[in-house]
Amino acid sequence: MQKGGIYFFLVIFALTLLALLKLYSPFLMNLLIAFLLFIATQNVYYVILKYIKSPLASTFLMTLLLIILCFLPIFYILLNLLNLATNLELGNFQNFLLDLQMHLGEYGKEIFAYLPDLLQKEINNWLAHLSGIDWTEVAKRSIGIVAKISQNSLYFLSDTLFILVFLFFFYYYGGALGQYFLGLIPIQPTYVKSLYEEVSAVISVVFYSSIFSMLLQGALFGILMAFLGYNALLLGVFYGFASLVPVVGGSLVWLPVVGYELYLGNYSYAILITLYSIIVIATLADNGVKPFIISFINRVLIKTPLKINEMLIFFAIIAGLTSFGFWGIVFGPAITALFIALLRVYKILYQDKV
């Protein structure tokens, strides 16, 4: 082909690519999420395929499994938030906050009387700031946030449907698509496979460890809530998803429950929930059991051993949540792992030749 023909082809190809990006831009994020979920769960899919022998049946089963584990609990939470925003009266919620503030002020002074003077002074200053809060505005904003989350559930539903459709096709045609694109990339297939396997290993470890940890912590908190007479399923699901948030984690759930028990005057229940959440769930289940979960995942499900420090993965999750929201749990580690893997390939391809 002549130079003029090559330039013409490149221009037409670039314009067509831009047109495709414009055409499918509403679905690009859903497509990327589906692709990352496929990368994270492909090992399980191939295990299922090995026993069932039918690609179509294996694809249906794997998609159904992800719906049950990932999407149904989210819709359950959204439906309950919608119900809460519909039925909660602003006046009653405001009175609850005011009563809780009064209880903390009254009983707090008796409890804090046994603490050192310096600590008492700091707590009294904190209580003084607490008394100055406009609880009417807090109540309005809280209900507004819940209502907005509930309204966005329709958009989440449509996004979920597209993600599941894309995910289904990735499972069913993933092998053929992989071979096709492998032939288009102008890098040795061994390097491309190395990049893919390293990114896949990181995403898989993050995904599986998050799912196992979420199920374990949610179940433990749900057991305690059932014992205390709460809606164990709802609070357990809430706690499971809250545990995915770095640093604060399950405190987003158990602290409001403790506040409600203090409001009712059930101090023993409040102490029990606090100690159980901190010692049993946060310390033993999360910090104690999680390393064994990650070790099990590396040994059984992951073919390529991790080459990235766990602390880097932790910060990648935080950065992903900050930049992309909920799905940043997968995006952050994926982008970080891809960059580090590309640096390794660069070192092999170029630096070793210098």
UniProtKB/TrEMBL annotation:
<dbReference type="InterPro" id="IPR002549">
    <property type="entry name" value="AI-2E-like"/>
</dbReference>
<feature type="transmembrane region" description="Helical">
    <location>
        <begin position="232"/>
        <end position="255"/>
    </location>
</feature>
<feature type="transmembrane region" description="Helical">
    <location>
        <begin position="267"/>
        <end position="285"/>
    </location>
</feature>
<dbReference type="Pfam" id="PF01594">
    <property type="entry name" value="AI-2E_transport"/>
</dbReference>
<protein>
    <submittedName>
        <fullName>AI-2E family transporter</fullName>
    </submittedName>
</protein>
<keyword id="KW-1133">Transmembrane helix</keyword>
<keyword id="KW-0472">Membrane</keyword>
<keyword id="KW-0812">Transmembrane</keyword>
<feature type="transmembrane region" description="Helical">
    <location>
        <begin position="60"/>
        <end position="79"/>
    </location>
</feature>
<feature type="transmembrane region" description="Helical">
    <location>
        <begin position="306"/>
        <end position="324"/>
    </location>
</feature>
<feature type="transmembrane region" description="Helical">
    <location>
        <begin position="6"/>
        <end position="24"/>
    </location>
</feature>
<dbReference type="GO" id="GO:0016020">
    <property type="term" value="C:membrane"/>
</dbReference>
<feature type="transmembrane region" description="Helical">
    <location>
        <begin position="201"/>
        <end position="225"/>
    </location>
</feature>
<feature type="transmembrane region" description="Helical">
    <location>
        <begin position="31"/>
        <end position="48"/>
    </location>
</feature>
<feature type="transmembrane region" description="Helical">
    <location>
        <begin position="154"/>
        <end position="174"/>
    </location>
</feature>
<comment type="similarity">
    <text>Belongs to the autoinducer-2 exporter (AI-2E) (TC 2.A.86) family.</text>
</comment>
